[in-house]
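Apologies for my clumsy wording, but can you show me some protein sequence, whichever is easiest, together with the matching C-alpha cells, please?
=====
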Amino acid sequence: MAPYWEPGTFYAEGSVVEYEGHRYKIIQPHTSQGDWNPSITPALWGRMDDHDGGGEYHQQQHHHQGQQQHHDSEKHQNYVPPTQGGLPSGDGVTVHHEERQKHWYDLDDKRKQELEIGGGLLAGAALLAGGYAAFKHHEKSEEEKKAQTWSLQNWVHDAEARTAQYRQYGPSGPATWILNQGKNIPQEAIVVGQEKSWTLYICRAFYDGGIQVGKASDAFQKGGVIGYKHEEIHVGTYEILVGDMNGLRWVDTSGHLNVDSLGYRPVEGGREPDGTPLYVASAYHHDAVHPGKASRNLEGAYIPYDGGEKCVKSYRVLCYNG
C-alpha cells in the first residue's frame, strides 16, 4: 500500500502516494504544501489506475512517456538528480536542463507557444497557487508574468534536485543551499547571529526574476525573510544555507563589494533580476548580527529589517577557506 500524501514532505523521483482514495505517481520532484495536493496539481502528480498494480497512470490522465520510474530500493540508492535529463512539466512537454538555464525572452516564439499550450508553465502556476512569493502580480504584463513563472519553476526545479542530492549523498562542500519550508530550521544550518532570543540563519528565495538573500528563523512569521527594493518580504518556502564553518570564514569589507579584494572566494548567494551576482553578507545592526546581501552595485550590505531594508557600510562576506 502506498503511503498517504502529506504536506511538508519532499517527494523524489519514483514516489507513489495515496490521496482521497486514489494513487498518484510523481511527475516533478518537489516539497509538498497543504494547498498543493495531488488532485489539483496535474503538473506535479499523475493519477494511477486504481485497478492496475503495475503502476500505469489512470487512462483519463495524460500519459508522460519515458518518465515512469520503478520505486524500489535500488533506484533510490542510485538516484540521479532530475536536472541531468528531460523532465515533463505538464501536458507532455519535456524541458531539458540546458533550456531551463535560458531566460523566457531568449526562447523563440514557437517554443514559448509549445510550453504554454503543452503545459510547460503548469508547474510554475502550481507553485504560485501553492503560495510562493514570486512577484507582485498586478504590476506585471501577461508576458512578464509568463517570464516570472518560467524563472520561478526553474529555480524550484534546481533547488529540489540539489536538495535531493544532498539528502542522498550528503554535502559536496562546506556550504550547500537546500530547500526548506516554514519554521523548521535544519540542524546543520549555518548560524549567523542572535537577535533578542532567536537565532538567525541565512536564506534565499526567488522574487521578481532574481534570487534574493535574506535571513531565516523559527521566530519569523513564515520562517524566511528577504529584502527587495526597500521592502521586507516574508517567505514560507525558501532555500537555507547549510554547511560547516570549518571550511568557511567571514571576511571584513565595506562599501561596494570588490570580490577580487577579498582574498578568498565568496559563497554564491543569489542574483538580481538583471543577473548581477549577490553574495552572502552579515552586518551588525541594533545589537545583533544579521544576514544579508552584498554586490558590486550596492553601497554596503543590505539586510531585511523592520519592514524594509537597511544598508550597513561595513560588513563581512562569507567565503570559502580554500
